[in-house]
Amino acid sequence: MNGNSSDSYWSPSGYIPGGMKGAIASNGNITLSGAASIEGDARPGIGKSVSGGTVSGSTAPLTVALSYANGDAGNYATTNDNALSSPAFSGGAGDITTNTTLPAGNYYVHDINLSSGETLTCTGKVTIYCYHNLQ
Length: 135
Known about the structure:
The chain is mostly beta strands. The chain has strands at residues 5-6, 24-25, 30-31, 37-38, 42-43, 50-51, 54-55, 94-96, 100-102, 105-112, 120-122, 126-134.
């Protein structure tokens, strides 16, 4: 993670600084660079570590590997809410590469690649199916 940050999440009350925190976990190492910060836990994989950046919570390695079944986008690859995003995606799938707002819905995207200072804002319950890169 380079120059980005993870913080509290959207709630019915809106953004709450110091709220529930934005934790990150991985089966590998977690590398933070630039001004990257995590307001919450950064939990690397078993025997792995966290380097760089600022972490306000725990950096202890996981004790059990993360294991999730692959998500199934079902019909969302072709029937989704991408046109509701601001700025709007073109076609059935697109990339999130700049400040983007997503109202409640189901989104099917190729890449999520936000630079330092850029935000992804969700104004309701959102499910994102990202089938390529998340950076």
